[in-house]
Amino acid sequence: MRRTSLSLGLAALVAVIWTLLPIYWILKTAFIAPVDAVAFPAPLWPSNPHFAAVHNIFGFGYTDADGREFLPAGQSKQVINGLKNSVIVAFFVTIITLLIIVPLSYAFARFEFRGKTALLMAILFSVAVPPVSTLIPFYILFVKLGLTGTALGLIIINLTITVPFVTWMLIGYFRNLPAVEPLARVDGFSRLSTLIFIVIPMARSGIAVAAIVSFLFAWNEFVFATQLVNGTPAATLPTAVSGFLFLQPQPGLLSASLWISIIPAALVAFFLQRHIAEMNLVEPVK
């Protein structure tokens, strides 16, 4: 028993280090002097925190204690514009996804109708297909429709990922909720009012998790964004950050921009994590 506990503890420690070390390294690189960021071996701890990269990435100059001046990053406009576009795209993708998948998942979970199995298999197939395999057909379609280089096109293509995935996830959650529909019908509720006023409040934890998943999918989406909006005014933050990889190496600016991309998603997950725990506590109805 002691050996098993020790093995589990070591495995957990390795997993934690494996997960947190890259995040710490990015944070550390964003707050050290540029000369230290390219030094070898790199310092493990920023002895004198340097805020040039953080200021420069937002378009501000910075002068350190030694009087050295650091000019705003040339990519600051792209990063700020990408941040704005990512917020817009992720927000609308999340809202539209919830408006679609809540009644859709509820219908699949609670009702029997013709073609239900075939539609479920279609949703499962959509979830299983790698997004990159549909890149070329979508690109040709969006070029003909004039949706390349637009936030609308990116919202639509994100919905093709979030809607089937989150629908499949919520179907099982709705199935595990108590069957309140007969009681609601006795009290005079219609099917729609039952969904809105009874089922949705009961399923708030599952819906919150669906919102988190949808937001993170849209926020981090890179493959479609690279082909459809990269280099246009509708470019998102992941494509803007990727531009640092093709320019003169600037580890501090790259790390600062990565933290900009991590923080909003982390805040969304942090404030809604309670619902994730509550979703896991729902027991199947026997």
Q: Class by helix and strand content?
A: mainly alpha
Overall strand count: 2
Give the biggest sheet. Answer: 2 strands, antiparallel
- Supply the CATH class of the largest domain: Mainly Alpha
Assign a percent range to the helix content: 55-70%
- The CATH topology of the largest domain is what? MetI-like fold
Question: What gyration radius follows from the Cα positions, in whole Å?
Answer: 24 Å
> Per the principal axes of the C-alpha atoms, what is the gross shape?
globular
Terminal Cα separation, in Å? 35 Å
Beta-strand percent range: under 5%
**Number of helices in the DSSP assignment:** 14
Trace the largest sheet across and list its strands: 1-2
User: Which whole number gives the mean pLDDT?
Assistant: 83
Instruction: Give the full name of the CATH homologous superfamily of the largest domain.
Output: MetI-like
* Element pattern in H and E: HHHEEHHHHHHHHHHH
Given as residue ranges, the uncertain stretches (5+ residues, pLDDT < 50) are none
Q: In the CATH hierarchy, what is the architecture of the largest domain at level 2?
A: Orthogonal Bundle
Structural domain tally: 2
Give the helices and strands, then pairings:
Blueprint: H1 2-30, H2 34-37, H3 52-57, E1 62-63, E2 69-70, H4 76-110, H5 116-128, H6 135-145, H7 151-175, H8 181-186, H9 191-202, H10 204-220, H11 223-228, H12 237-242, H13 251-271, H14 273-280
Antiparallel strand pairs: 1-2
Helix pairs in contact: 1-13, 4-7, 4-10, 5-7, 7-10, 10-13, 10-14
Give a written overview of the molecule.
Helix content is 70%, strand content 1%. The protein is mostly helical and 286 residues long. The chain has 2 domains: 2-70, no CATH class; 76-280, MetI-like fold. Strand 1 and strand 2 form a beta hairpin. It is globular and about 75 Å long.
